[in-house]
Amino acid sequence: MKTARRVVKEEVFPLKNHRKILAAVASIAAIASLTACGGVKDANTAKRAAATTRTTRLDAAITIGTTDKITSVDPAGSYDNGSYAVQIQIFPFLYAQDYNTSELSPDIAADDGTWNDDGTEFTVKIKEGLKFANGHDLTASDVKFSYDRIKTINDANGPSSLLANVESVEAPDDTTVVFKDSVPFDVTLKQVMSSPAGPIVDEEVFDADKLTDADTIVKGNAFAGPYKLTAFKMNETASYEKNDSYKGLTPAKNDAIQVKYFADASNLKLNVQQGQIDVAFRSLTPTDIEDLSKDSKVKVVKGPGGEERFLTFNFKIQPYGESQSDADANKAKAVRQAVANLIDRDELSKKVYKGTYTPMYSFIPDGLSGHDDTLKATYGDGEGKPDAAKAKKVLEDAGVSTPVDLKLQYNGDHYGSSSADEYAAIKSQLEADGLFKVDLQQTEWTQYNKERVVTEDSDGSYPVYQLGWFPDYSDPDNYLSPFFRDGNFVNNGYSNKEVNDLIVKQAGEKDATKREEILKQVQALETEDLSTIPLLQGAQVAVTGTNIKGVVLDASFRFRYASVTKS
């Protein structure tokens, strides 16, 4: 497959391959020259010096701890914060955010891009002379390849839903990329380029039509971001070294990073307290953060959130779901609406999360255009509190027998150990008045993330389940398209043509007032459908040693290792 891909590439980009052939010839000649001149000894000396330098880098490495699990190093196979935390360090993007801003700037792009007259094509020039760490040229061909393979692979856990508006990507020459977009003057396109769908990978290392494993990526040194990933053991350790060939927006201010993955938050807390790690990021419990804020040996760093916690309904296997023997769309909706009437978000916020998460009654969080607390007005007592009588009536009117058997799934290793308390509280809220009987279960994250989704071959395994969302970009679209558009990230079997069309429409609406109106229309429809139920929104929190500087948690919603320094 790779051989065939390279042949195609030669047909389209003969100059790129010609340069590579010349470079290879030059390398052979250089080796021959070294041998002829007795230069092998010098070469070995250089290797030893390089090894010594690398050891020095690792000894001075900044150590970061997390409980956030990785699904895939390959951008086409993941759409979760743990995986993205790796990818933003090692892969470049066309556009990204500089520190302390949500505005986009060129990363490896050379300009801000331009639309054609009818808004159907967006042209981006990329910087000349870009290289991957392995020496391969990074050209427009690699950009096209990176976007094409995400759509081709279309992995159930991948970010292909973000590219729904992108019809095609062309590379007419080495430094020009043309995006053809189905939405004229798409206001979300550049944001998508900075999202989990945007990492640029090496077409000579990655497969075009299937996921590439981490070992192949590491051995291939296929990196063009601020760092190279030099050693990797899935969800145990990752070693990063500064990539000197990176020509993007945020070059590394340190030489090396070590990341350790913890099974639980208590060990993460202990390690940062004892100075065994320099930074703890995702996911300490609210109690841990409260305790650590009183500890003089560490610093607590907070930043804007945008994180959302929500319940998801599987439309295939929820009670009265589409693939159930007693399938009934009206009864299924009544179950969802009854749940919404019984949830007490304030209790979850105060008793479980000690205010580190706040109640969320909108599909778009506070601070973004289109925010509208429709869930508070529509469900419960109208003020944010539950209403059991209202829930009972909804079920009775639909002819639903009670108690409703509800299988509810959650995950504590990815969403934090407080999830156990959160979902125990939700179980109690739903069962308090005898309307539901809840079977509460927990599953390990990597299994959870695979089993939750509805695919062509599976209806998924969890009727109702916990999900969280950490935004890809600071735009209300990122709380709508990945959730409710056809082919969405949630993959819960939900589809509503009116909702889908409105989401497409808002993406191309340049008038801010008109766009906000459309955003509110989408939320009104979703308030009725309830394919998901937003519960809470939270902030970003990191805990560091007192000798650590430069941890930036901003509205980019990225924790970039590049800014961190240690004295």
Describe what you observe in this structure:
By secondary structure, this protein is α+β, with helices and mostly antiparallel strands. 35% of the residues lie in helices and 20% in strands. The protein is built from 19 helices and 19 strands. The strands form four sheets. Strands 1, 8, 9, 10, 11, 12, 13, 14, 15, 16 and 17 form an eleven-stranded mixed β-sheet that branches. Strands 4-5-7-6 form a four-stranded antiparallel β-sheet, covered by helices on one side. α1 (2-12) crosses α2 (14-36). The radius of gyration is 25 Å and the shape is globular. The two termini are 48 Å apart. Residues 1-41 have low confidence and may be disordered.
What topology does this entry show?
Layout: H1 2-12, H2 14-36, H3 40-59, E1 62-66, H4 81-90, E2 95-97, E3 104-106, E4 114-115, E5 121-125, H5 140-153, E6 166-173, E7 176-181, H6 189-193, H7 214-219, E8 227-233, E9 237-242, E10 256-261, H8 265-273, E11 279-281, H9 286-292, E12 298-313, H10 329-342, H11 345-352, E13 357-359, H12 374-378, H13 388-398, E14 404-410, H14 412-415, H15 418-431, E15 436-442, H16 445-451, E16 464-469, H17 481-484, H18 497-507, H19 512-529, E17 532-545, E18 548-549, E19 565-566
Parallel strand pairs: 1-10, 1-11, 14-15, 14-16
Antiparallel strand pairs: 2-3, 4-5, 5-7, 6-7, 8-9, 9-10, 11-17, 12-16, 12-17, 13-17, 18-19
Helix pairs in contact: 1-2, 10-13, 18-19
